[in-house]
Design a protein that fits this description.
The chain has 222 residues and is an alpha+beta fold. The protein has two domains: 88 residues, no CATH class; 111 residues, no CATH class. The strands form two sheets. Strands 1-6-8-7 form a four-stranded antiparallel β-sheet. A hairpin with a 4-residue loop joins strand 7 and strand 8.
Length: 222
């Protein structure tokens, strides 16, 4: 079994989608599980935020960074699930109205509501660029910067790892089987540290050392 950090994926969502489809033969729906965006949210009241956090959603990273200011990181896959299943929430409505204007149309066109949506004045979203994310404080960067990985092995080997993945994953059947998934920097550190003692020992150790070179400031926060 082997693991590889996919550190050549372009940072911009449209470029990421095209790259993942061309390089790794992923469908759009599969690629959406590996494409993440980070937003800064300003709220005039706490209620819409609390109602949003009451829902069970896979792979969302959320932090309060100031009084009624928040950082939200989620995959395009999770965004699509939000629009399909949680459009009753004020935050989801505002995310949809905001991101529908700036994301490529194919990202959410097929899950867009058929009826008109009114924006709430309670929440103001702003998307962070990849450059802005690199300037986050180290403890936030460790949680909100997402890294994608590929794992190859037998079906039996990969199945034993599924419970360790905190976020959505893509399983490709073949010889060997292949899994694509993403971790935050802190999640990757925990996963790779566990694998240092197991079957992925050599490759996990090498990736850990590489991550420490790329993100030295984060490892004091983990």
């Amino acid at each position: 079994m082997e693991i590889k950090w996919l550190n050549n994926i372009p940072p911009e969502p449209r470029d990421s989608l095209n790259f993942l489809k061309a390089r790794y033969y992923l469908s759009s729906e599969e690629a959406f599980k590996l494409i993440y965006i980070t937003l800064k949210l300003k709220a005039l009241s706490d209620s819409p935020i609390y109602k949003f956090l009451e829902r069970t959603l896979t792979g969302i990273k959320f932090d309060e960074i100031d009084k009624r200011e928040y950082l939200l990181t989620l995959s395009i896959h999770t965004l699509r699930e939000l629009i399909k299943d949680h459009l009753d929430l004020k935050l989801t409505k505002n995310l949809y109205l905001f991101l529908n204007k700036i994301l490529p149309k194919e990202f959410i066109k097929d899950v867009s509501p058929k009826h008109s949506i009114l924006a709430s004045q309670d929440i103001i979203p702003e998307i962070l660029t990849s450059e802005e994310k690199t300037k986050l404080p180290s403890f936030l960067k460790a949680k909100h910067v997402m890294l994608s990985f590929s794992l190859k092995g037998s079906c039996e080997e990969l199945i034993t790892l599924l419970h360790l993945f905190p976020n959505s994953y893509v399983l490709k059947i073949g010889n060997p089987y292949q899994i694509f998934t993403s971790f935050s920097i802190s999640e990757a550190f925990i996963f790779l540290l566990k694998q240092k003692e197991e079957v992925l020992k050599d490759s996990a150790e090498k990736i850990l050392e590489t991550l420490k070179i790329f993100f030295p400031e984060c490892f004091g926060e983990i």
